[in-house]
């Protein structure tokens, strides 16, 4: 998530949580490729409660900023 996974790697480092992006089980359609916000992606976050909460907060903040517009700077 992020160019070359840079954003998710930053979240991993900052939160110290283990974050796994689970593979999508099907090939994406052209519509899904053009509108990634309609694709449901599952992730796994593990660690102590603080690490998980921090990682979740970072991910949620990034998703909210993404929804504001593609030209916004994300965390």
Automatic annotation (TrEMBL):
Q: Which residues form a coiled coil?
A: none
InterPro entries xref list: KH_dom_type_1, KH_dom_type_1_sf
Matching Gene3D superfamilies, A to Z? Answer: K Homology domain, type 1 (3.30.1370.10)
UniProt keywords (A-Z) are: RNA-binding
Domain K Homology stretches = 1-60
Annotated transmembrane regions: none
* Top-level taxon in the UniProt lineage: Eukaryota
Entry's SUPFAM superfamilies?
Eukaryotic type KH-domain (KH-domain type I)
GO molecular function ontology, one term from the record: RNA binding
Q: What is this protein called?
A: Putative Mer1 protein
What is the originating organism of this protein?
Answer: Zygosaccharomyces rouxii
Q: Which gene encodes it?
A: mer1
């Amino acid at each position: 998530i992020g160019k070359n996974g840079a954003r998710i790697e930053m979240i991993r480092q900052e939160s110290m949580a283990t974050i796994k992006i689970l593979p999508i089980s099907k090939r994406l359609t052209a519509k899904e490729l053009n509108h990634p916000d309609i694709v449901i992606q599952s992730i796994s976050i593990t660690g102590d409660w603080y690490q998980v909460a921090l990682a979740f907060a970072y991910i949620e903040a990034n998703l909210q900023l993404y929804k504001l517009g593609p030209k916004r700077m994300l965390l």
